Amino acid sequence: MQRILDPAKIEAFAERDIPRVRLADPDVFGQRARRLRALSSNHPLRDYLLLMAALVDAQQAEFDSLRSALVAEAFSQELGQQIELAQTHRMPVLQAAGWPRQDRWRAILRDLCGAISSASTAFPPAVYALCARIVATRDVELDAQADLLIAARTDGVDAQAAPFVMAALQVYWASMASTLRVADVTQLDVPTVCPVCGSLPVASVVRSDKRGPQGYRYLHCGLCETEWHMVRITCSHCLSTEGITYHSIEGGSEAVRAETCGKCHTYRKILYQEKDTDVEPMADDLSSLALDLLMTQEGFHRGSGNPLLWQTSET
């Protein structure tokens, strides 16, 4: 009698041979911008997706610049003791909460706003007013907003400015993370958070590309763009393997589904690269808000938000 194993069991058996961590692709923001533009065609949120595409294009330019600077400064070599400490205590090497951010993150934020203000694409006047307001905001207030967003707080967050602030923080952390080696990153005791920066994942992706083994699920960090392996058919919030179900929008993309947990009643999107080779965690999550509405109606709540769309507790 032939025995057929489900994907989770296959992954569990092969886990030692699966790359645990995938550091950010050098073109991570460029890929995202292209995907956002592709998804914007005939989309109800077309204008917003195009605005975010312009912002993400600017992120790629800032990422390239900062990463080159960090390599020249031998940033990763200076982390030697920090890396050893993280490996000893099984903790994120670039722990976002409490990290001593340099002033350059605010310079990145203001540069991103400047890029939007000078972009060839015409945006509504409110967008330019927002960018001007962010640029004029005092450093101490920007740092306070960054602290709230890193802590995933909602009270006190400037929801309009949040995607721009998060965009700057993403560049800052992704640039630092990209200078690491996979060997620098240790496996955490809490597998539901990013092993590099300790942040929550935006979504998960079942990969089918040339960068590694095919058919395995990776969680995608919403801050540093790192991906880490998690066995399929497992809740990415509470780690339950019971009551896991999958939902999609009738007539929608077969590559995007919501993975729900009957135990903790949370969900996150799961993307299937074999169904669409161009799926991108941030972009496809943002463009599938109809699926979020469906999950809310079904009584589930998101495990974590999308940095490109921030909602306060009042919205």
User: What is the third-level CATH name, the topology of the largest domain?
Assistant: FdhE-like fold
Evaluate the radius of gyration: 19 Å
Mean pLDDT level? 92
Q: Report the CATH architecture of the largest domain.
A: Alpha-Beta Complex
Number of continuous helical runs: 11
Just give the CATH class of the largest domain: Alpha Beta
Low-confidence stretches: 1-5
Share in β-strands: 5-15%
Secondary-structure-based class equals: alpha+beta
How many angstroms separate the termini? 55 Å
Outline, from the CA principal axes? globular
- The tally of strands reads 8
Give the SSE map.
Elements: H1 7-14, E1 21-22, H2 28-40, H3 46-72, H4 75-78, H5 80-89, H6 104-117, H7 125-136, H8 139-150, H9 162-178, E2 201-207, E3 216-221, E4 227-229, E5 244-247, E6 256-261, E7 266-272, H10 281-287, H11 289-297, E8 301-302
Parallel strand pairs: 2-7, 7-8
Antiparallel strand pairs: 1-4, 2-3, 3-4, 5-6, 6-7
Helix pairs in contact: 2-3, 2-10, 3-6, 3-9, 6-7, 6-9, 8-9
